[in-house]
Amino acid sequence: MAQCCILGAGNWATAFARVLADAGHDVTLVARRPVIADGVNQRHHNPSYLSDIELGPTVGATTDPVRGLAGADLVVLALPAQHLRGYLRHLATLPVWRDATAPVLSLVKGIETGTDMRMSEVIEQVGGVPTARIAVLSGPNLAREIAERQPSLSVVAAREAAVGELVQQWCLTPSFRAYTLDDVVGVEIAGAAKNVIALAVGMGEGLGYGHNALASLITRGLHQVAALGEAMGGRRETFAGLAGLGDLVATCMSPLSRNRTFGERLGRGLGVEEAARESRGVAEGVATSRAVRDLARAYEVDMPIVSGVVEVLEGRTSPAALVPVLMQREPKPEW
Ligand SMILES: NC(=O)C1=CN([C@@H]2O[C@H](COP(=O)(O)OP(=O)(O)OC[C@H]3O[C@@H](n4cnc5c(N)ncnc54)[C@H](O)[C@@H]3O)[C@@H](O)[C@H]2O)C=CC1
Ligand SMILES: O=C(CO)COP(=O)(O)O
């Protein structure tokens, strides 16, 4: 049995707490708001996220990261990508963080705007965590379905095989199964960029298009995301796996996805601010789209779907106007 500390107490943190508890571990969620910590400790429910899900007696919560981190065998980061740097800056001032030797597992799917850094790079640079201790988990993992104990698969990527295998063992349950992989770059790019493609697919849905259009966006989206990942040093087959195709399909097809739903609202004519107001949590693709576009430019990878999404988000075009732009590109071979 391990002591697990999850930094964050939102949708994914709550669902993953249940996974770790089901795997037999003690879990402490580190929340920002006392109302969440009290709800988890006194009633075994997170009152703000997945509030109908029973968390059981082995899941506790605190608002104090020092208490959460004390004695942790596994530290899990489950925060929005654009807030990770600020949070890590604070953690890096704490002796309990600086002296820790536990694996640090990132559940975060985004790229930092401004720096265009992957989350494991931010964890290493700002958190001072050596690469060998970092693992990332990604896959078709819609939080609600996992919290409901529906069968789900995922990937744990780590540079250090022993760390990946340890995390894999620690999160195996009858309904959650993780595979290991050594392609951290591929898994992080796949997890971040699929949110941008899901925004585009959502726009297509909002415009009223059928499955041909949506499947075409998913397929060409995967092609473009894989090309970026490969250019950055990831492996092509990662994008055909759970963290690539698997997560892309789940996110683009599910009404539970915040990114797809955000895109759908834009497709129906809502503005970015209105769509954000209605979102049930962070839609990472909104900020990450600019970073992915910048990476595509830097690595000279053609990503017209991502560029189009950025144009819409920055108000320079509309989802409907994007359709002829994508359809009337220069004809070319598929591969
Ligand atoms: N919800 C899902 O189904 C899945 C989410 N993810 C990823 O996990 C990450 C977190 O997502 P969710 O839990 O769904 O988001 P959420 O919006 O449900 O919760 C975010 C959590 O972060 C906290 N937070 C926000 N800003 C903060 C700050 N400045 N400092 C400290 N804490 C802060 C919030 O209080 C909340 O506890 C994202 O990168 C997302 O893409 C990955 C797989 C599945
Ligand atoms: O990453 C996810 C599923 O794997 C969650 O997607 P959303 O953030 O779009 O809800």
Automatic annotation (TrEMBL):
<feature type="binding site">
    <location>
        <position position="194"/>
    </location>
    <ligand>
        <name>sn-glycerol 3-phosphate</name>
    </ligand>
</feature>
<dbReference type="GO" id="GO:0051287">
    <property type="term" value="F:NAD binding"/>
</dbReference>
<protein>
    <recommendedName>
        <fullName>Glycerol-3-phosphate dehydrogenase [NAD(P)+]</fullName>
        <ecNumber>1.1.1.94</ecNumber>
    </recommendedName>
</protein>
<comment type="similarity">
    <text>Belongs to the NAD-dependent glycerol-3-phosphate dehydrogenase family.</text>
</comment>
<comment type="pathway">
    <text>Membrane lipid metabolism; glycerophospholipid metabolism.</text>
</comment>
<feature type="binding site">
    <location>
        <position position="258"/>
    </location>
    <ligand>
        <name>NADPH</name>
    </ligand>
</feature>
<feature type="binding site">
    <location>
        <position position="284"/>
    </location>
    <ligand>
        <name>NADPH</name>
    </ligand>
</feature>
<feature type="binding site">
    <location>
        <begin position="258"/>
        <end position="259"/>
    </location>
    <ligand>
        <name>substrate</name>
    </ligand>
</feature>
<keyword id="KW-0560">Oxidoreductase</keyword>
<feature type="binding site">
    <location>
        <position position="109"/>
    </location>
    <ligand>
        <name>substrate</name>
    </ligand>
</feature>
<dbReference type="GO" id="GO:0008654">
    <property type="term" value="P:phospholipid biosynthetic process"/>
</dbReference>
<dbReference type="InterPro" id="IPR036291">
    <property type="entry name" value="NAD(P)-bd_dom_sf"/>
</dbReference>
<feature type="domain" description="Glycerol-3-phosphate dehydrogenase NAD-dependent N-terminal">
    <location>
        <begin position="5"/>
        <end position="160"/>
    </location>
</feature>
<feature type="domain" description="Glycerol-3-phosphate dehydrogenase NAD-dependent C-terminal">
    <location>
        <begin position="183"/>
        <end position="323"/>
    </location>
</feature>
<dbReference type="InterPro" id="IPR006168">
    <property type="entry name" value="G3P_DH_NAD-dep"/>
</dbReference>
<dbReference type="InterPro" id="IPR013328">
    <property type="entry name" value="6PGD_dom2"/>
</dbReference>
<dbReference type="InterPro" id="IPR008927">
    <property type="entry name" value="6-PGluconate_DH-like_C_sf"/>
</dbReference>
<keyword id="KW-0594">Phospholipid biosynthesis</keyword>
<feature type="binding site">
    <location>
        <position position="143"/>
    </location>
    <ligand>
        <name>NAD(+)</name>
    </ligand>
</feature>
<dbReference type="GO" id="GO:0005829">
    <property type="term" value="C:cytosol"/>
</dbReference>
<feature type="binding site">
    <location>
        <position position="32"/>
    </location>
    <ligand>
        <name>NADPH</name>
    </ligand>
</feature>
<feature type="binding site">
    <location>
        <position position="247"/>
    </location>
    <ligand>
        <name>sn-glycerol 3-phosphate</name>
    </ligand>
</feature>
<feature type="binding site">
    <location>
        <position position="258"/>
    </location>
    <ligand>
        <name>sn-glycerol 3-phosphate</name>
    </ligand>
</feature>
<keyword id="KW-1208">Phospholipid metabolism</keyword>
<keyword id="KW-0443">Lipid metabolism</keyword>
<feature type="active site" description="Proton acceptor">
    <location>
        <position position="194"/>
    </location>
</feature>
<feature type="binding site">
    <location>
        <position position="259"/>
    </location>
    <ligand>
        <name>sn-glycerol 3-phosphate</name>
    </ligand>
</feature>
<feature type="binding site">
    <location>
        <position position="109"/>
    </location>
    <ligand>
        <name>NADPH</name>
    </ligand>
</feature>
<feature type="binding site">
    <location>
        <position position="143"/>
    </location>
    <ligand>
        <name>NADPH</name>
    </ligand>
</feature>
<feature type="binding site">
    <location>
        <position position="109"/>
    </location>
    <ligand>
        <name>sn-glycerol 3-phosphate</name>
    </ligand>
</feature>
<keyword id="KW-0547">Nucleotide-binding</keyword>
<keyword id="KW-0963">Cytoplasm</keyword>
<feature type="binding site">
    <location>
        <position position="12"/>
    </location>
    <ligand>
        <name>NADPH</name>
    </ligand>
</feature>
<dbReference type="Pfam" id="PF07479">
    <property type="entry name" value="NAD_Gly3P_dh_C"/>
</dbReference>
<dbReference type="GO" id="GO:0005975">
    <property type="term" value="P:carbohydrate metabolic process"/>
</dbReference>
<feature type="binding site">
    <location>
        <position position="257"/>
    </location>
    <ligand>
        <name>sn-glycerol 3-phosphate</name>
    </ligand>
</feature>
<feature type="binding site">
    <location>
        <position position="33"/>
    </location>
    <ligand>
        <name>NADPH</name>
    </ligand>
</feature>
<dbReference type="GO" id="GO:0046168">
    <property type="term" value="P:glycerol-3-phosphate catabolic process"/>
</dbReference>
<dbReference type="InterPro" id="IPR011128">
    <property type="entry name" value="G3P_DH_NAD-dep_N"/>
</dbReference>
<dbReference type="InterPro" id="IPR006109">
    <property type="entry name" value="G3P_DH_NAD-dep_C"/>
</dbReference>
<dbReference type="GO" id="GO:0141153">
    <property type="term" value="F:glycerol-3-phosphate dehydrogenase (NADP+) activity"/>
</dbReference>
<keyword id="KW-0520">NAD</keyword>
